[in-house]
Amino acid sequence: MDAETEGLPPNNTIVEVTSTETDLATRRRLFKTQPSTLAARRQQAVCVRRAHKMYGNSKNPNVVLDGLNMTVPKGCIYGLLGASGCGKTTLLSCIVGRRRLNSGEIWVLGGRPGSRGSGVPGPRIGYMPQEVALYGEFTLRETLIYFGTIAAMARNDIDDRTEFLLKFLNLPNGSRQVKNLSGGQQRRMSLAVVLLHEPELLILDEPTVGVDPVLRQSIWDHLVDITKTGNTTVIITTHYIDECAQAHVIGLLRGGRMLAEEAPTFLRQQYNASSLEEVFLKLSVLQNMGRRRRSSIAKEIVEQVQVPAISNPALDMSDEHNTADISGEFGDNISMNSAIRDPITAAEVPASPLPSDKEPPATLMQHLDVISSHHMRALVWKNYLWMLRNVGIMMFIVALPVVQIILFCYAIGHDPTGLKLAVANGELSEQMSIDQFCPVFPGCNQTYLSCRYLDMLKKNKSMEVVSCWTHITFHLINCDVLRFYRNFSKPRKQPMLRYDAAMHGAHWFSTRTIRTH
């Protein structure tokens, strides 16, 4: 009985299935299948994908990071090597959240820098920049207390770590002020601040510059010890390439791209080099060859250096579209050329669904929780110490507003004095005006109320009545003029029973005119 009568598939079909399974198994051995790109990125300490960062305007941009991919596994020392100006400091500042990429993605400790609940920037990381960002008026011990309070450490823990770090980093007495330290001591003090609260991720930008070789080796030994448990990850940049031989992984950065991202011993073996400097040279030559940029100096170097035939997408600049983004173990060192590799469908490789990349909306309490108690306590304590150390400045700050108020009151706050006033009183006769006689009747006698009013003005020292006439020519007088008409006092002599009529009449008959210049 043949195969067709038994209902079995033909022999050629069986051979085809076997060949397909063999090819699939071969591809799986060559290219490690990733269960989930997003999940793999969250499992790394730092994961950077397609990072682009530029400065300047769009017409003439200064590209610092050009499609950079970087992967830092947890619990390792990652040495970032590169020449000055290659983008190391910019990359680190983007990782800690101080700067933002123009495009691309950054994942730090499972979250995006600056997102709610990520802790970045925050106590989960310790960042030591190139510049010394410390308060010069503080002593060494006060500096560690201040930063330890910000990190919500207990006072006993701060004291214990302070004693250890001052002794370990060979720093002077804790009572010495930071501004009185040398440049190297200030950098070691900055390193002590970073190591104080034992963060999950340490980012050190050239921490061993100007450090004694013995102390430099002690620092590296300490970094190796704290990463053995797997709870701490270290990213370190340095000018000393041979130092990074102690790192678990190194990344060679040049021209805004990652040339290689592997273990130091593996790179030396792969490129048949005796030192990391030689590896860096060969990779730089390969990058220049890929970019088709050769000067007379570069041509001589290329002729002298034997370059192994390798395939690295970061070095091949001729066709950038054939290089895809992956979430491999170390950056770009896995080839993902789509023209050679057939895609593996979801049916062939089952994978768990991707976790949600969207952040849940913030609650009302999360919006209101903008100030933490330990941050406020640290800031109040810092300002209090600053005021004690700068008494002269504080006295100036307090006295300056008082002096300003006093000067303002002396210059503007007084009543006007020496005002001249000419009076034309129509109630007086011409003879009384000539004799400058204006009778003042006390009590309820309402005769010559204008004279009583003028007597009140004369008692006021701010005014000076210069003349009192029955008639006055206004255009001949160069001062203010007060004029009373003849019937000024008459409406006020009306009986109180005719109160309304008297008040209405006062508006009509009793008038005075004030003319000012």
TrEMBL record:
<dbReference type="InterPro" id="IPR003593">
    <property type="entry name" value="AAA+_ATPase"/>
</dbReference>
<dbReference type="Pfam" id="PF00005">
    <property type="entry name" value="ABC_tran"/>
</dbReference>
<dbReference type="GO" id="GO:0005524">
    <property type="term" value="F:ATP binding"/>
</dbReference>
<keyword id="KW-1133">Transmembrane helix</keyword>
<feature type="domain" description="ABC transporter">
    <location>
        <begin position="48"/>
        <end position="280"/>
    </location>
</feature>
<keyword id="KW-0067">ATP-binding</keyword>
<keyword id="KW-0812">Transmembrane</keyword>
<dbReference type="InterPro" id="IPR027417">
    <property type="entry name" value="P-loop_NTPase"/>
</dbReference>
<dbReference type="InterPro" id="IPR017871">
    <property type="entry name" value="ABC_transporter-like_CS"/>
</dbReference>
<protein>
    <submittedName>
        <fullName>ABC transporter G family member 23</fullName>
    </submittedName>
</protein>
<keyword id="KW-0472">Membrane</keyword>
<dbReference type="InterPro" id="IPR003439">
    <property type="entry name" value="ABC_transporter-like_ATP-bd"/>
</dbReference>
<dbReference type="GO" id="GO:0016887">
    <property type="term" value="F:ATP hydrolysis activity"/>
</dbReference>
<keyword id="KW-0547">Nucleotide-binding</keyword>
<feature type="transmembrane region" description="Helical">
    <location>
        <begin position="391"/>
        <end position="413"/>
    </location>
</feature>
